[in-house]
Design brief:
Elements (H helix, E strand, L loop, with lengths): L2 H12 L3 H7 L4 H8 L7 H13 L6 H11 L1
Helix pairs in contact: 1-4, 2-3
């Protein structure tokens, strides 16, 4: 999965709208939209932190593992 696909999968697994997801991470909805549409690149460490928080709080599963596996295979 690409970073964009991981981000979208995380938001969908969480069941949050773009507005809700952005609020949950205290960011602007516009930034999230630009990341999801590929107009701006999400920093890798930010995506990792977001996935970690979502997984530890029970909103998403296995996405951090997916990200780790992708980097191990590169």
């Amino acid at each position: 999965m690409t970073d964009i696909e991981l981000l979208k999968a995380a938001r969908k697994q969480s069941g949050m709208s773009q507005s809700g997801f952005a609020a949950y991470f205290q960011m602007s909805k516009r930034t999230l939209q630009e990341w999801e549409q590929g107009r701006r690149k999400i920093p890798e460490f930010v995506l990792r932190l977001m996935l970690y928080r979502l997984e530890t709080e029970g909103y998403a599963t296995d996405l951090l593992k997916e990200m780790d596996e992708r980097f191990l295979n590169d």
